Structures are given as structure tokens and as C-alpha cells.
From TrEMBL, chain A:
Organism: Flavobacterium celericrescens
Chain ranges of the Periplasmic copper-binding protein NosD beta helix domain: 105-147, 155-341
Signal peptide (from-to): 1-17
Recorded superkingdom: Bacteria
Keyword Signal belongs to the record: yes
Protein name listed in UniProt: Nitrous oxide reductase family maturation protein NosD
Keyword Plastid listed: no
TrEMBL record, chain B:
Keywords, ordered alphabetically: Membrane, Transmembrane, Transmembrane helix
Transmembrane is among the record's keywords: yes
Transmembrane segments: 44-67, 87-112, 118-139, 151-174, 221-245
Protein name (Swiss-Prot/TrEMBL): ABC transporter permease subunit
Species whose genome carries this gene: Flavobacterium celericrescens
Domain of life per record: Bacteria
Length: 409, 255
């Protein structure tokens, strides 16, 4: 009988999770009241409607579900949803109009120092910051759509902002019109997978001091300055699209002070600069495609021991450019569509080394207005003679085994 | 006037040089487009043709043709036809021939292989360059009676616009590199029809690079509708002004 009681008590404890409905047609009309009534482990279903309840705080472990996309409105005065508990699920809400403030950074959804939070299938519209993870672990942000409308950098927050977190998964979100689409600062061991970040005012993706992360199969298109990865090591970048990032300081991918990273199978198309590298070391750039960019890669003289292997350079105005004469990087077995050599032994690699750095790329680096003369016959002549006898361009800037045919990427 | 144009055109066709020019252009364009699976190399070849071959052939052929038809012109002048009409018909005949040669030789492969703004821009600029250099040929052939001198002058004009001008601009650029000369550079391009055409094409061909810092200045001017109109007006002026100067001289000339 004693054992039976214990088992009974155990089951009653574990089965007590209740479902609470919030909505116009239900007994509980207010989301806040629903949360107060809910116990740890309960499910709170919010039915479609417009809820203007200021700052909603979730302070216990609950499943917070929206049915028919209920709207939580911050009325430009409040942070909308604050999560102060572990293992909370937020699913299916439309969260709009968070406040704007520069000290507290009010958000659509903010997680405060917690872990195992799941945020999915939400629509965030016109918020200052979208989703903010502060000092959180093991969280998943999935299938959310974020949109903002500001024009100035100062008036906009980041779409998905993670600070001092680890083991984060960011999957299949769409971020449009924020300052930075996804922002990582001191975030480690995290994965960014299948997101689309377009039309953000600053960067599509912004990494700072975040080691051991990977971003895979994302699309970054038409952002103010492309994607920036800075002061970081061990970052993997696979299968991403970097497209149409146009402007003087816009780069498909900006690498600054990066080490030991791997850039594999990405596509850089129609950017002003495909990759810009500054102070990077021991990076492998392999099997990427650089197409129709102004500059395929800009490798500053401060970079060392980088390997650029098996890439396709097609239809770029300049394949490579640099700002000095020091070359500590290696180029091997890339395909350059401007290569004019021959292959007598038919091993698929050109017999004449290729100098990817054109004289004119160096000239425009020093005198940008020389761009006006590009493709003029005069310049073509100068370029040709420089290719034969390099005098201004560093002669060790060379691909010794240029491929004759483009790689199928 | 139509009848004179017809006579001139049939004479040019019988002459076969323009036909050969058309054939060479078309072999060059088709083969360079077929060379690779992307159209980049073909476009570059045609760009070089527009900037280099088209001006040379247009100015040389037109100059030599004008000198050789001196007797025909004298014969026409003995008829009751206005001098203005004769000179205009010659101009229309020659420029139609050159434009058609370019259109058939390079324009059709362009439209087939690159049916977008780049191809269209190149076609338009190539035709304009043909007409401009025919007009310059009229000027050089009216300036002197001596055939050798006239042809020499034509070659000089071509050399100046195709090579020297860019060399001078490059020199200026490096001498004045410390000064904000970008806007001035935009103005200077107006002094060479080849440069005007080249920049028009460049803005479509290298659009990504042109979005950079200085590129943006050029794009702000040439890329806008106003800039586009201005540069086409300038190109047309490059055809109209030399031709009108030559016509005024022809009207008063003692032949």
C-alpha cells in the first residue's frame, strides 16, 4: 500500500501538466494572467487576436504556443517577450513593435541567462532587436521570419543577436531589413544553418570573437556590407551564397583577424568584392566559385599562410587585388577564366604559371580614379607586357598549376 | 538624293572591301563567342573590336573612298544638284554601309549570345562609333587635297583617339593623383568618342566593380538617365560637328 501511494504520488506529479487557453472566447482573456496561472510544465495556448499587454515575462518553464498567429504588440513602448526561465518553448506568435532604446536594447524576444529555450515559427515585425540571446546555452532559434523597416543604422537593432552564449542552433530563419541580420559576439560552438539574410542595413551576418562556429548553406544577398567575420578562429563556412553586396566598403565576405578557418564550396556572385582579407592566417579557401564580382578576392599584405585551392574565377573584373608586394599566401590549381596559357602534356593543368594580379588592379588600388580607363586599349597593352615581365606586381603572386577547365561546382 | 545614295551603296558593295570587313567581323565574333561556355570572352573581343577595329576601318575606308570618288563628285557637281545634297548623300551612303557591316558582322552574334543590356549597349555604341569615324573621315579628306596627306591625317586621328588620348589621361591621372579629380575626369572623357563609348559599355559590363568608390562617381553621372542622355548627345555631336564643318568647307571649296 505504501509503494502504491508512492507510485500514485509520482504519477500525479508528472501528469499534472495542464493546458491553459487564452483568448477572447475563453475564460482567461489576458496572456499575463495565463502565465500567472500556469504552473511549471504547463502548456499555454494563446488563440488568435491582438494582445497589447506591454512587457510579457515568462518566468517559469512553460510551453508558450500561439494558435492562428496571435499578435503580441509592444506598441513601441515595451520589450515584448522576456524569457527568464530554462526550457521555455515559444512557438507561433506574431511579435510586433518593440520599443526603441539604446541602453536596454528592447527586443521582440529576449532570453536572459537561460538554457534550452526553443523559439520557433514566429513572425517578428518592426521590432528594434528581433531575437536576443543573452548569456544563454543550448538554445534553438528556428523558422522565424524577422523584418524591420528603418533606414538608419542607429535606429535599427539586429535581427538575431547572440551575446556570450554557446551551443546555439539558428536554423531556417529569414531576416530582412535589420541592422545586422545575425550578430554573434562571444558565441562558441554554434551552428547557423539554412538562413536567408537579405537587405540588411549593415551586415547579413556579423561575427565577433566567436570561435568554433559553423555557418552552412545560408543566403546573404544585397546587404549593406555583406558578411563580416572578425577576431575569430576556427570558423567553418560551407555552401553559402554571397550575392549582390554592392558599394565601396561592401564585401561578399569580410575577414579580419581570422585564423584557422575553412571556407568551402561557397558562391560569391556580383559583389563589389567577393572576399576581403585583412590580417588573416592559416585559412583554406577551397572549391568556391567567384563569379561576376568587381574584385574576386582582395588579399591585403597582412595575410599569411592562407591557401587558395581549386576555386573558379569567372567573369570578375579583377580576380585578385592586393595593397603591397609581400605575398605569404599560396594559390594552387584554381581555374582563372583570364588564363591564356597552354597544356602540352594534357594533365589538365596549364604549363605556364598564371599571375592573377593584373597591373591595373595595382594601379586602381593606388589611384582609384584610374578605373575610368579600364579596358582601354592602352591599359590592355600595359597589362599584357606586365604579365610577361612583372615589374610593378609581385612576381611571386602566382598560381603555378592553373587549371585549364573550370571545376564543376 | 535617294538615287545618289543608291548609286554610292551599290558602288561600295561592288567594291567588296566592306563585304570582306563584314565577313571578318562575323568570323571573329562568332568564333570568340563559341570559344567558351560563358559569354565573357566574346564580349571582350567585341569590345576591343568596337574600340579599335571599327574606328580604324571606318575612318580609313571612308577617307580613301572619298579621295577615289573625286572624279565622280566632280561629275555630279556638273549636274543641277546642290552641293549640300551630294555631300550628305555621300555621308549617308558611307555610314549606312559601315553601320550595316558592323550590325551584320558583330551585332547579330551579340544579340544572339548576349541579349541583355550589355549586348544592346555594345551594339548601339558600335554603330555610333562607325558613324562618328566616317564623319571624321569627311573632315580629314576635305582639309587637304593631297591624298597621302589626307590618309595620313585620318590615321593620326585614329591613333590619337585609340591610343594617345588614354595615355595622356593616364599621365594626368598620376600627376594629379593627390587632387580630387574624379569629376574633372568625367568631363575629360567627353573629349574622346571612344572613351565615351567605352565607359557606357563598362558601366554595364563591369557593374560590380563600378559600384566601388570612384566607380560610384561615374555611375552617378553616366548611369543615370540624364547621364545616359548627355553621353549619347555628346556622341551624336561627335558625328554631327565634324561633318558640318566638312560640309561648310565643301560648299565653299573650289574644286
Amino acid at each position: 500500500m505504501k509503494y502504491f501511494l508512492i507510485i500514485f504520488l509520482f504519477f500525479s506529479l508528472s501528469l499534472k501538466a495542464a493546458t491553459i487557453h487564452v483568448g477572447k472566447k475563453h475564460a482567461i482573456k489576458s496572456v499575463k494572467r495565463g502565465i500567472t496561472l500556469a504552473k511549471v510544465g504547463d502548456t499555454l495556448i494563446v488563440h488568435g487576436g491582438w494582445y497589447k499587454e506591454g512587457n510579457i515575462i515568462i518566468d517559469k518553464k512553460i510551453v508558450f504556443l500561439g494558435k492562428d498567429l496571435p499578435v503580441l504588440d509592444g506598441e513601441k513602448k515595451h520589450e515584448v517577450l522576456s524569457i527568464h526561465a530554462d526550457s521555455v518553448v515559444v512557438d507561433g506568435f506574431k511579435i510586433i513593435r518593440s520599443a526603441y532604446a539604446t541602453i536596454t536594447d528592447p527586443c521582440g524576444i529576449k532570453v536572459y541567462n537561460k538554457s534550452h529555450v526553443l523559439i520557433q515559427n514566429n513572425v517578428l515585425d518592426d521590432n528594434f532587436f528581433g531575437i536576443y540571446l543573452q548569456n544563454s546555452q543550448n538554445c534553438i532559434i528556428k523558422n522565424n521570419t524577422l523584418k524591420a523597416y528603418g533606414k538608419e543604422e542607429q535606429k535599427l537593432g539586429n535581427g538575431i543577436h547572440c551575446w556570450k552564449s554557446k551551443d546555439i542552433l539558428i536554423i531556417a530563419n529569414r531576416i530582412d531589413g535589420h541592422r545586422d541580420g545575425i550578430y554573434f559576439e562571444f558565441v562558441t560552438n554554434s551552428v547557423i544553418w539554412r538562413n536567408i539574410a537579405n537587405n540588411n542595413i549593415r551586415y547579413g551576418l556579423h561575427f565577433m570573437f566567436s570561435n568554433d562556429d559553423a555557418y552552412i548553406t545560408n543566403v546573404f544577398k544585397n546587404n549593406g556590407a555583406g558578411v563580416a567575420v572578425m577576431f575569430t578562429k576556427n570558423v567553418k563556412m560551407f555552401n553559402n551564397y554571397f550575392e549582390e553586396n554592392w558599394g565601396d566598403s561592401a564585401y561578399g565576405l569580410l575577414l579580419k583577424e581570422i585564423a584557422d578557418s575553412y571556407i568551402f564550396n561557397n558562391r560569391f556572385a556580383r559583389n563589389t568584392s567577393g572576399i576581403y582579407m585583412e590580417g588573416t592566417s592559416r585559412i583554406k579557401v577551397e572549391k568556391n566559385s567567384f563569379e561576376s564580382n568587381g574584385w574576386g578576392m582582395k588579399i591585403q599584405a597582412s595575410c599569411m599562410e592562407n591557401e587558395i585551392v581549386n576555386n573558379n574565377f569567372l567573369k570578375n573584373t579583377f580576380d585578385i587585388s592586393t595593397n603591397g608586394s609581400l605575398v605569404l599566401n599560396t594559390f594552387n590549381e584554381n581555374y582563372w577564366d583570364k588564363y591564356e596559357g597552354y597544356d602540352l602534356d594534357k594533365d589538365g593543368m596549364g604549363d605556364v604559371p598564371y599571375h592573377p594580379l593584373s597591373l591595373f588592379a595595382v594601379l586602381t588600388e593606388n589611384t582609384p580614379s584610374a578605373m575610368l580607363l579600364y579596358r582601354s586599349f592602352m591599359i590592355t597593352l600595359l597589362d599584357k607586357s606586365e604579365k610577361v615581365l612583372p615589374s610593378i606586381t609581385p612576381d611571386n603572386f602566382v598560381d603555378n598549376k592553373p587549371l585549364m577547365k573550370s571545376l564543376p561546382l | 538624293m535617294n538615287r545618289i545614295i543608291k548609286i554610292i551603296l551599290s558602288d561600295i558593295i561592288r567594291n567588296k572591301i566592306v563585304l570582306a570587313y563584314t565577313l571578318i567581323l562575323s568570323i571573329l565574333s562568332w568564333s570568340s563567342f563559341a570559344l567558351e561556355d560563358n559569354s565573357a570572352k566574346g564580349l571582350l573581343t567585341i569590345l576591343n573590336v568596337i574600340l579599335f577595329t571599327v574606328p580604324l576601318v571606318s575612318i580609313l575606308f571612308a577617307t580613301i573612298y572619298l579621295y577615289n570618288s573625286a572624279e565622280f563628285i566632280e561629275l555630279l557637281l556638273s549636274q543641277p544638284i546642290k552641293r549640300r545634297k551630294i555631300w550628305l548623300s555621300l555621308f549617308f551612303g558611307l555610314s549606312t554601309a559601315m553601320v550595316f557591316a558592323f550590325f551584320i558582322g558583330a551585332g547579330i552574334p551579340l544579340l544572339v549570345n548576349s541579349p541583355d543590356s550589355i549586348g544592346f549597349m555594345m551594339l548601339l555604341n558600335g554603330c555610333l562609333i562607325s558613324v562618328i569615324f566616317v564623319a571624321l573621315a569627311f573632315l580629314s579628306s576635305i582639309l587637304t587635297r593631297d591624298k597621302a596627306k589626307g590618309i595620313g591625317l585620318a590615321i593620326m586621328i585614329w591613333l590619337y583617339f585609340a591610343l594617345l588620348f588614354d595615355g595622356m589621361v593616364l599621365f594626368l591621372l598620376f600627376q594629379l593623383a593627390e587632387y580630387p579629380i574624379e569629376n574633372m575626369m568625367v568631363g575629360i572623357t567627353a573629349f574622346s568618342p571612344i572613351d565615351l563609348a567605352r565607359i557606357q559599355i563598362l558601366l554595364h559590363l563591369d557593374v560590380s566593380a563600378m559600384m566601388g568608390y570612384t566607380g560610384a562617381i561615374f555611375k552617378d553621372f553616366f548611369g543615370t538617365t540624364v547621364g545616359l542622355l548627355v553621353s549619347f548627345v555628346l556622341l551624336s555631336l561627335w558625328a554631327i560637328i565634324p561633318f558640318f564643318i566638312s560640309m561648310r568647307k565643301f560648299n565653299k571649296k573650289d574644286l
